[in-house]
Design brief:
Two copies of one chain form a homodimer. By secondary structure, chain A is an alpha/beta fold. Chain A contains seven helices and 28 strands. In chain A, α4 crosses α5. Chains A and B meet through α2, β14, β15, α3 and α7 of A and α2, β14, β15, α3 and α7 of B.
Chain lengths: 404, 404
């Protein structure tokens, strides 16, 4: 049985972005940028007015005040005043308009008096006052955004300000899902005594979406090795990652490993010293010169969701080209004691809160791997190391913030 | 000029969810739940085995050990063993299978020896060992999820485990966008001297999407009151909220207020004691018995994005039925001094970080309302009150975590 850290390393060690594609800016929100963006011009592209007011030569106010300047015209944003402004002259100007030649500052309209074709200025104006200089936000040739980031609204703003219509983003990985188990009933099937709903498929669809990948749902199958094999075999070429749930333990009806191995997948590991999720199996296989990753996830909902967050999500992120692919980690203090058995790392579902400069955590409910409500009440997963048997209240442990 | 808190109150005071719709569970991820979900059966639905092993009466181990029990059959998950198990008998059982009548515990298979049709048990087994009881996760009749939450993967899991095929969610608000200003060029237009790209439309589309609403892009128009009026008039019935950018100041070319007022909208406020975003205008109008909210946003990118986060996003959240609609607020210490003018609340774009039990913030770049890079580098907005002129390094202030 290998340890969590080693298993995670094996899952992630060979993963590379699966490819790039061009998308229009309108479709780029939340995609992962696949190219460095270099400014093809400066922003602002030209010196311009930050206010509605009057463009002047500041040196005209370096004398006995008040001074009178002659209004020689006006220019709104988007227009260009072609003549140079001379000493003693001013141009009426509006926010965003090009600073006219010969001027170096703008005095706001509410600070002057207008007397026919003149303005009266009663204070000294500094050079550059109310001017936004070309390139003061972004300089031509500057690297504005680096590949590997997830594009948010501000990045879309930057890209549009640079007039970029199309950008390269990483292709979204496709993730197949097959639930196994005779006891599973779909949402619309009658729930007989002894059977339960197939919930894993639905949580996985949502988790895959939340990771920015594309879920491909191949339904459910009973405990039948040939059927499992055929479904994986038929659909693997469409997927980058294939997830099965259930059937990976040592029981008489645990046929998933047999099925996956029969298609020639190389077993990288089976069984990890962790709880929940001990029977996790991981395989790699080459198809049409592309690597396919197959996870045999356990059957219990808690084990499925947690192994997804700790193994599958980071793998999806790496295949998607994300620079940051590991769960966000904090340190937090337990508010209560905790007992566990030695030998396996425990993933404890916890509620995180912040008080007096510390992060605290407490169990979000009973930790049996079948519990759904405990998952819904959690916003973190605490990692309690293999060799620990007892955690006293107040002990600091590592916690991963969940993104599910 | 009214204050920020008052203006925000006016925007939010009358907002109610715009409506409900039914969606299939597959389409419910990230939607806002519009009904309380009550468990129609318990989870687990029946007492079942947590292990592959043997179901026994625990009292059979209350005697001199080892004991031998006769194997009377086996039952896997999804099957039902119809006969009652008597004293001295056991049933081979698999994870998830119904606990058979007459038994109260399960001993794992690796802890027994099998001798022909008998198992040998060498330890006392407690009642309930390795049994998952019906309803220990969720009890029939229990409120499982409350309306107003945004559905994440764990909620989808709960709903599917309860066999819920369709649920009621709140309708997504539709938000129209019209950019105004002669200087604006679209991404595919040549950028002449004096003109700039229309970036506000693109950031707003992304911000609206990030708030779970539907953006409707009505393009851009020059500084022409009739055109602005006509575009709003023609499209307002399709929108719950209408956003314009630019043209709300006191300049000669600021026609948005005139246009909005000419269609009969009631002005709730214009000008707020804040920076950036001072000329913000807000209107309400009834159309086909529905309230329409119109914001005249300023023209500068920083002012647009920040007023969106502080006013428009909370309004979208309220119209979407979200229980939590205000920005997440923390307290953080400035790492540097800060000077501002009295009279207006300042929204300072900041980077937040956590160190030694404290949140710290520093300006993410120059705070001019036109700067885009400062926005991209920020993950928070610090709120510096109207009457403050000087903030010393180390001072704690309120910070909103941005969701853009």
């Amino acid at each position: 049985m290998i340890k969590f850290e080693e298993a995670k390393k094996i899952v992630l060690e060979s993963a590379k972005p699966i490819g790039k594609e061009k998308v229009f800016l309108e479709d780029a929100f939340r995609r992962i940028l696949a190219e460095d963006i270099i400014a093809n011009y400066s922003i602002p592209p030209f010196d311009n007015s930050a206010m509605d007011g009057f463009a002047i030569k500041s040196e005209d106010t370096n004398k006995d005040l008040p001074v009178k300047l002659r209004i020689v015209g006006e220019e709104s944003a988007g227009e260009i005043f072609r003549k140079k402004i001379d000493k003693g002259q001013t141009l009426r100007i509006f926010t965003g308009a090009l600073l006219p030649a010969g001027t170096d500052s703008v005095i706001p309209q509410e600070e002057v008096e207008i007397e026919k074709e003149f303005i009266v200025i009663r204070r000294k104006v500094r050079k550059g006052e109310n001017v936004r200089y070309a390139g003061e936000d972004i300089k031509e040739g500057e690297i504005v955004l680096e590949k590997g980031i997830q594009l948010n609204s501000t990045h879309i703003g930057l890209l549009s300000a640079l007039g970029i219509v199309e950008i390269e983003v990483y292709i979204k990985p496709k993730v197949g899902i097959l639930a196994t188990g005779e006891e599973l009933k779909d949402l619309n099937e009658p729930l007989l005594q002894g059977s339960i709903r197939n919930s894993n498929t639905y949580t996985l669809i949502a988790q895959i979406k939340s990771a920015g990948a594309i879920p491909l749902n191949y339904g459910k199958t009973g405990d039948n090795p040939n059927e499992i094999k055929n479904i994986i075999e038929e659909n693997l070429n469409n997927c980058d990652i294939f997830l099965t749930t259930g059937g990976v333990s040592v029981g008489k009806y645990d046929y998933v490993r047999e099925a996956v191995e029969s298609i020639g997948a190389e077993r990288k590991f089976w069984k990890v010293a962790q709880k929940p999720g001990m029977p996790l199996a991981f395989y790699v296989l080459k198809r049409e010169n592309k690597l396919k990753y197959i996870f045999g996830l356990p059957g219990n909902p808690g084990a499925v969701m947690i192994t997804f967050e700790e193994y599958v999500r980071p793998l999806i992120y790496l295949l998607s080209g994300r620079k940051n692919y590991l769960p966000q980690e904090i340190e937090a203090k337990f508010t209560h004691d905790l007992k566990k058995k030695k030998g396996r790392l425990n993933f404890i579902r916890v509620k995180i809160f912040f008080e007096n400069g510390e992060y605290y955590i407490s169990e979000s409910g009973p930790q049996g791997s079948g519990f759904l409500k405990t998952l819904a009440n959690a916003n973190g997963i605490a990692l309690i190391p293999e060799d620990v048997e007892y955690i006293k209240a107040g002990t600091k442990v590592k916690v991963h913030i969940v993104e599910w």
